[in-house]
Amino acid sequence: MSANQNTPFTPPVIAIDGPSASGKGTITQLVAAQLGYHYLDSGALYRIVALAAKNNNISWNNEALLAELVEQLDIKFSDNEIYLNNNKVTEKVRSEEIGGGASEVAIHPALRKALVDLQHSFRQAPGLVADGRDMATVIFPDAKLKIFLTATAEVRADRRYKQLAAKNKSADYQKILEDLRQRDTRDQQRSDAPLVQAPDALLLETSNSNIAEAVAFVINAYLANAKSN
Ligand code: DC
Asked: For a disulfide at 155, which of 85, 95, 151, 159, Cβ 3.0-4.6 Å?
């Protein structure tokens, strides 16, 4: 019997971390689609908790109740839609208010712990591309490829502004920029799993590049990595 037959297959992970509105979600989804891998949007989990807390009148500061709440949530991702307890919540979860709430609930260690197993359950064959803040540092430290994706706050605010304007939603650039900066600071300065570039992550700065270039960078780095292993 060869060694391979005894070693269980652990699906490979590509971990993509970075600040809000850095394009992580779009880039991660496209990389996953090209490779035929599964996709984890870990930020959506924190957003769902923030929304469920709001619906249940639980404060975003109540660490113990937030952690308990996770056990009662039935979360499903299907065809680009997000379902919470069988209700479609995609639009609400993606709102600026709930994004801010996600950043607030995410500071609590007990809540972060309650979400670990759920995140690990996305690691399935043939592989996973996961995006968030602590994918490379905490959740999948053995990821085959780690990317830290970023862009200046001004570029990110401008992209968010244009996205909202394209949907005919009212948007104020200065307010978006301020909110982004506030979220960056909160995500970077919390004590548990702060947003930080893992020492072994590649930096991908996208202020002057487009989505297709970023996707190509990740795929090429992954394939080069696979060849050298
Ligand atoms: O990626 P996003 O904007 O959907 O994330 C919303 C918030 O969730 C973000 O401001 C911080 C939190 N988050 C986190 O703490 N850890 C993750 N892995 C993903 C998101």
From this structure: 151
